[in-house]
Specification:
- By secondary structure, the protein is α/β, with parallel strands linked by helices.
- It is 33% helix and 11% strand.
- α1 links the parallel β1 and β2.
- α1 packs across α5.
- The longest helix has 25 residues.
- The chain starts with 18 loop residues before the first strand and ends in a 19-residue tail after the last helix.
């Protein structure tokens, strides 16, 4: 999985590579690092590791410089996900270099929309759970597990794991690859929020 590097023209479908996805929650120690680790693992299994860059950040800088919450680490480790993490705060100027900014709940979505410099940047922002099967009929927030016990972190992981395959299909389509959801036509993906 790419974690940094220059843009590379000529990727399948004309998309720049690496295709950059940033997951955003409040403090960048629970939900967003979990989503980043799960997405990275799915991208690697799909053979997209060299074409996709995953990162995460928080809407606040409360935990900047800290590692992931120990309960996040425990849940990811138990599920077999590799993870390294240092928390950081999302910055407005990142919109220019990111392809998708994935919010973990409606509050993050609102914060990111206020931060976006313009309409083109706003169109990059999505809710992670909008990619889950049956998203139109379920709560789109990934609840914050920080103030609860281990079961909240397990629920968080389950919700993330349910949505990541749909997100990966959108990324694959943007890169010009066939999408399982659209029968290989490359026009699948979640609606803009």
């Amino acid at each position: 999985m790419r974690t940094s590097g220059p843009d590379t023209p000529g990727a399948p479908g004309g998309a720049r590579t690496p295709y950059r996805v940033c997951f955003v929650c409040t403090g960048n120690i629970c939900r967003s690092p979990m989503a980043e680790a799960v997405f990275r693992a799915h991208a690697e299994r799909a053979g997209l590791a060299e074409l996709v860059e995953a990162s995460s950040a928080g809407t606040s800088g409360w935990h900047a410089g800290d590692g992931a919450d120990s309960r996040t680490v425990a849940v990811l480790t138990a599920a077999g996900y590799a993870h390294e993490h240092v928390a950081r705060q999302f910055r407005r100027d990142w919109f220019e270099r990111l392809d998708l900014v994935i919010a973990l709940d409606e509050g993050h979505l609102r914060d990111l929309r206020r931060l976006a410099p313009g309409p083109g940047h706003t169109r990059k922002i999505r809710l992670l759970r909008s990619y889950a099967p049956g998203a139109g009929s379920c709560d789109l927030d990934v609840p914050d597990p920080y103030y609860g016990g281990p079961e909240g972190f397990e629920e968080c992981l389950a919700l993330v794991e349910e949505a990541v395959p749909g997100l990966l299909e959108e990324v694959r389509a943007a890169l010009g690859g066939p999408s399982a959801a659209d029968g290989g036509t490359g026009d699948g993906g979640a609606a803009l929020l």
